[in-house]
């Protein structure tokens, strides 16, 4: 198994609150890794460490290493924009830019140096097709993105992230605000995207993890209780806490 990200001895506290405790984890390349666990266990904080958004928090004390393709990204100060460009982020609720559908994707392309109008149009179309949104919006590209349904907005945000050519997609409860049909569309898209991207998804929905995970990480109180392939985790769990969680008796 080839790994895209390697986390070593990661500890993080905010003020006096210890959030992450001795995290050691290798995240497989071109697979869907799902981070499971109850609310408040540190899942989202771990995700924010990967793209260095944790830097925006106050009173953070962090130690350890996070290697992306062999480079320690946790302590470098030289290329934060480059690190974040490698990692597209999909949040719990979609946050389209306050502009039209077309410009939501074109804006990032322009910022990254693409100014050829024909190539921008081509890229916008390709990425909307990539998230199965093109047929729904091709005749309304100049309409405000805010007029789209929540599910469509989430797919638009995914297309916007893919347009800047990341290597990794981070997703923090990406279907929690969506209806069942939109949730299913996002899940199917993630399964397709792993051919070209490494995906790391935070969720507390066990059924969802069973449907799409290749690799599973189970966290509790800031620690990793157990991790392994989906088959190992769901069918051959080793820890009593994991077994209780899977059986619905965990508290």
Task: Please explain how this structure is put together.
The protein is of the alpha/beta class. It has one domain (29-44, 81-247): Rossmann fold (3-Layer(aba) Sandwich). Helices cover 37% and strands 27% of the residues. It contains 10 helices and 10 strands. It has a 6-stranded mixed β-sheet, sandwiched between helices. It has a 4-stranded antiparallel β-sheet with strand order 2-1-4-5, with helices on one face. Helix 3 packs across helix 4 (117-130) and helix 6 packs parallel to helix 7. The protein starts with a strand and ends with a helix. The mean pLDDT is 93.
Number of E-state strands: 10
Q: Give the end-to-end Cα distance, rounded to a whole number of Å.
A: 33 Å
Number of helices: 10
Largest sheet features: 6 strands, mixed
Query: Average pLDDT, to the nearest integer?
Result: 93
Percent of residues in beta strands: 25-35%
Order of helices and strands: EEEHEEHEHHHHEHEHEEHH
* Basic shape: globular
Which structural category fits the helices and strands?
Answer: alpha/beta
Q: Work out the count of structural domains.
A: 1
Multimeric organization? single chain
Q: Stretches where pLDDT falls below 50 for ≥5 residues?
A: none
